[in-house]
Design a protein that fits this description.
- The protein is mainly alpha-helical.
- The protein has 2 domains: 63 residues, no CATH class; 31 residues, no CATH class.
- Helix content is 60%, strand content 10%.
- The protein has 4 helices and 2 strands.
- Strands 1-2 form a two-stranded antiparallel ribbon.
- Helix 1 crosses helix 3.
- The longest helix has 26 residues.
Length: 117
């Protein structure tokens, strides 16, 4: 990176902070510029430069994300969803897990035994 690019990046970062401070202050641009001793024209110039730079960065990032050839479809793999269709019961220290394919007659008899404990 050459010195001109470094200087440009430095000025952009300084003006980004100034514009951020103006937004956070809640003051109008006119009032903020008067208080800070900045020309409104200078403020708007750098605001435009920052917007242009942001747009350029968006275009560059879009170029990198559109790396799928035409005619192809980019697939986003879905994460598998695991559902546990079961219920856990604990009575007097006895732990039972009932799943949806549990035989109801067997469950009824186990519950009868647990009632007697």
């Amino acid at each position: 990176m050459n010195t001109q690019m470094i200087a440009k990046e430095y000025r952009l970062s300084q003006w980004a902070e100034i514009i951020k401070a103006r937004n956070e202050s809640g003051k109008s641009i006119k009032k903020f510029c008067e208080d800070a001793g900045i020309s409104k024209h200078t403020y708007f110039y750098w605001q435009r430069k920052l917007r242009e730079e942001a747009c350029n960065e968006l275009i560059i990032s879009e170029e990198f994300t559109n790396n799928v050839p035409n005619g192809w479809v980019k697939l986003n793999p879905e994460k598998p969803q695991y559902t546990d269709n079961s219920i856990s019961i604990e009575i007097n220290g006895c732990h039972i897990t009932v799943k949806e394919n549990t035989d109801l007659k067997m469950l009824k008899s186990v519950c009868g035994v647990l009632k007697t404990l």
